[in-house]
Amino acid sequence: MLDALITSKTRIKLLVKFFSNSDNRGYLRGLAEEFGESTNSIRVELNRLSNAGLLSWKNDGKTKSYQANEVHPLYQELKSIVSKYLGFDTLIEQVVQGLGCVNKAIIQGDYAEGKDTGTIELTIIASSIDLDYLDFLIQTTEGKINRKLKVNIVEREPKEGILGLVVYEKELE
Asked: Which of helix, strand or coil describes residue 1?
């Protein structure tokens, strides 16, 4: 979907990196290494996105650190588009809400870091889940989002919390 609208693979990778999780940051050489691309192609796209106001940057010593500009008028829309591109909306709708008794869902690993590697690691905090039904939901969702799901179920969140991107949290009643 996104690759039909945006022809630059580098730009798509940067949008996924920065708009999948607002905590994600990156710098030129690190992004080039992470994506396996030249620093020049990364620099060109970082400059385009920065000049458009979509990315903000700050100097960290001798390097520039980039991140999504959360005050840009298109920030929420781009975040939503990237979420749909990665299949997070379908994941939440199909798996998390389909189970019904989920307290919290957290994406961990590569996708929490903005890397589209093909396997989404999802930790679900819930009690009394029908594991056979969960397996069914995982299989149908994998087909819809064209990515593998690795789901971990825990009954309670540890006191130190779980690191990652919170994609669902049950409202307190």
From this structure: coil
